[in-house]
Amino acid sequence: MTGSNRTAPALAEVPAGRLVICHRCRGLKGPVPGRTDGARQLCECTPVEVRRAQPRWDGDYNTYAELCCCCGLVLLRSGSRWSAWFCEPCKKSVVALNQSAGRCLIPIGRHSVMNGVAGGPAQLASDTGVRTFANQLITFFDTFDGLEAWARTIVESNLIALGLDADRDVRLGDYLDAIKRSSLSRSAAFEALASRTAGRAT
C-alpha cells in the first residue's frame, strides 16, 4: 500500500514561523513559532551537551516540529515521545509494510510501544522472555539510524528538485511554499524508502 501521488500540502495548524532547514544535517532549527520566551529548536549540528542543557519548554523533547521522515513534504507537530514521524498517507504505507513483514522494519515513532515492541508480564517473567524482549528492543533501535539517514536524504533531494540552494540554510516557509507548486509525490518517496529498508534488512 502506497501513499497518494498528490503533493502533500503544508499543514496550516503547524506554522513554519522563522524556522530554517539546516544545510548540514537537514534538520529544522530556529525560534519556535508562537513562543515569547526565546525558545529555539536546535538541530543535530548543535553539540548534544548544549541541547541537553537547554531548558525544557514543555512535552518530552524540545522539538516543535519535524518534516515527515518518509516524504519530507509535510510539517508535523512534534515534542512528545508519542509523536509520529510520518504524515498520515506515509504512516499508513509504513504500517502496512511492517504488518506484511511481521515485524517493525520502519519505526513510526520514538516509543517502542507505538511500534508493537512491548514485553508483557508473561514474557518478562522468565529469563528467556527477558532476553527475547531485549533482542527485540535492540533490533528496534537499530532501525532508527536507517530512517534518520533517509530523512536527511529525502529533504536534500526535495531541496534540489525544488530548485532551492541545498548548500545554504533554507527558510522552512520557502520550502513548504515551493512544495505546493511542485509535483513531488509521497508514493515515490515511500517506494524508495521501502527499497532501501529491504536492502538493509537482508
For the record, give the distance between the C-alpha atoms at the N and C termini, rounded to a whole number.
21 Å
Enumerate the spans where pLDDT stays under 50 for 5 or more consecutive residues: 1-12
Shape: globular
The total beta strand count reads: 6
Assembly of the depicted chains: single chain
Number of helices: 5
Strand order of the largest sheet: 3-2-1-6
Number of domains: 1
Q: What sequence of helices (H) and strands (E) makes up the elements?
A: EEEHEEHHEHH
What amount of the residues lies in strands? 5-15%
Q: Which range best describes the helical content: under 10%, 10-25%, 25-40%, 40-55%, 55-70% or over 70%?
A: 25-40%
Indicate the radius of gyration in whole angstroms. 18 Å
Q: What are its keywords?
A:
alpha+beta, 5 helices, 8% strand, 40% helix, two-stranded antiparallel sheet, disordered N terminus, 202 residues, four-stranded antiparallel beta sheet, single chain
Provide structural commentary.
- By secondary structure, the protein is of the alpha+beta class.
- The chain has one domain (20-201).
- The protein is built from five helices and six strands.
- It has helices spanning 48-53, 88-101, 127-161, 172-180, 186-201, and strands at 20-21, 28-31, 40-41, 65-67, 75-77, 170-171.
- The strands form two sheets. It has a four-stranded antiparallel sheet. Strands 4-5 form a two-stranded antiparallel sheet.
- Helix 2 (88-101) packs parallel to helix 5 and helix 3 packs across helix 5.
- It is globular.
- The relative contact order is 0.19.
- The model is unreliable at 1-12 (pLDDT under 50).
